């Protein structure tokens, strides 16, 4: 299924940070195109700009130059308030750390996301149904510190998809898990992505996780600092 409205496109992206030692070129990327409903894994050496790219796709930051478009919305042109609103309603994010709120139960952590996305009608029913589907219902009243690392990360996936986002962005979601738990988390993520027809962009260092996506994109090192002029920038990463 390729629903309209949730394609991810980036063009001519450059991210630079001024630092006391000179300008850091964090990312240089000519073109990225992900179809609506597609899953893509982004791989590449440490420091090549994978997290920076994900932050731009999420609308957490704007590029120094270039554009990011989600569906029909050029999010890189939105002012901060509009970007935050767009992100809350349309994006689901998963990080290496689960970032669950420690004083809230599993169902409260997941339910909170619905409220934030302002789609709170029948929140309890929606949360319950999702936890059932993901095999997490028995854990719904537990606090995060009463869960294993793998369980916490599956709850983080539930929280990322409960509001049926157009796009799921995941930054090393299995990075702190053993292979068996990593497998369960990626299963949960890809099952959920397909169930809601979302687009998935996943950053990982793990080839076996990357292979679960429809397509793998290798991002090459694109860093050039004034302090290290011998470092070579390699654009045209995709
Ligand atoms: N706020 C910042 N100020 C200066 N440099 C930054 C900033 N944020 C990131 N960088 C630099 O930009 C480059 C890209 O960082 P990024 O975190 O995107 O890489 P990555 O590919 O995700 O790395 P890793 O695989 O190690 O997580 C790095 O060299 C990093 O040091």
How would you explain this protein's 3D organization?
By secondary structure, this protein is an alpha/beta fold. The protein has one domain (8-218): Rossmann fold (3-Layer(aba) Sandwich). The chain has helices at 50-58, 80-90, 106-116, 123-133, 149-161, 179-196, 207-210, and strands spanning 8-19, 22-34, 39-43, 65-70, 73-74, 91-94, 167-171, 199-203, 215-218. The strands form 2 sheets. A 5-stranded parallel beta sheet has the order 6-7-8-3-9, sandwiched between helices. Strands 2-1-4-5 form a 4-stranded antiparallel beta sheet. Bound molecules: adenosine-5'-triphosphate. Adenosine-5'-triphosphate (ATP) is lined by residues 17, 19, 24, 26, 44, 46-52, 223. InterPro entries: AAA+_ATPase, ABC_transporter-like_ATP-bd, ABC_transporter-like_CS, ABC_transpr_LolD-like, MacB-like_ATP-bd, P-loop_NTPase. It holds the Pfam family ABC_tran. Keywords: ATP-binding, Nucleotide-binding, Transport. Residues 8-238 form the ABC transporter domain. This is ABC transporter ATP-binding protein.
Question: Could you list some keywords that capture this structure?
Answer:
238 residues, alpha/beta, Rossmann fold, 4-stranded antiparallel sheet, binds adenosine-5'-triphosphate
Strand order, largest beta sheet: 6-7-8-3-9
Mean model confidence by pLDDT = 88
> Architecture, CATH level 2?
3-Layer(aba) Sandwich
Helix/strand class: alpha/beta
Level-1 CATH class name: Alpha Beta
In the CATH scheme, what's the topology name? Rossmann fold
Gyration radius, rounded? 18 Å
Work out the number of β strands: 9
Major pleated sheet: 5 strands, parallel
Helix content: 25-40%
Beta fraction of the residues? Answer: 15-25%
Uncertain ranges: 223-238
Bound ligand species: adenosine-5'-triphosphate
Q: Overall 3D geometry?
A: globular
The sequence of SSEs as H and E is: EEEHEEHEHHHEHEHE
Corresponding CATH superfamily: P-loop containing nucleotide triphosphate hydrolases
Number of domains: 1
Keywords: ATP-binding, Nucleotide-binding, Transport
GO molecular function: ATP binding
Domain ABC transporter: 8-238
Pfam families: ABC_tran
């Amino acid at each position: 299924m390729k629903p309209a409205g949730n394609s991810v496109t980036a063009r001519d992206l450059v991210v630079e940070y001024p630092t006391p030692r000179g300008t850091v070129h964090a990312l240089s990327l000519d073109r990225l195109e992900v179809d609506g409903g597609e899953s893509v894994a982004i791989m590449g050496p440490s420091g090549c700009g994978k997290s920076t790219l994900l932050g731009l796709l999420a609308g957490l930051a704007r590029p120094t130059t270039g554009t990011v478009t989600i569906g029909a919305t050029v999010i890189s042109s939105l002012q901060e308030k509009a970007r935050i609103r767009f992100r809350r309603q349309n994006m689901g994010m998963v990080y290496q750390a689960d970032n669950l709120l420690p004083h809230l139960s599993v169902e409260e952590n997941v339910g909170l996301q619905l409220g934030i996305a302002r789609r709170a009608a029948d929140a309890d029913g929606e949360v319950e149904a999702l936890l059932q589907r993901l095999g997490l219902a028995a854990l719904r009243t537990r606090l995060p510190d009463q869960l294993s690392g793998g369980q916490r990360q599956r709850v983080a996936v539930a929280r990322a998809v409960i509001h049926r986002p157009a796009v799921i962005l995941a930054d090393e979601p299995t990075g702190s898990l053993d292979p068996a738990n990593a497998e369960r988390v990626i299963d949960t993520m890809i099952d959920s992505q397909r169930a809601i027809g979302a687009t998935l962009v996943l950053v990982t260092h793990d080839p076996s996780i990357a292979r679960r996506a429809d397509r793998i994109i290798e991002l090459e090192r694109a860093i050039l600092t004034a302090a290290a002029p011998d470092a070579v920038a390699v654009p045209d990463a995709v």
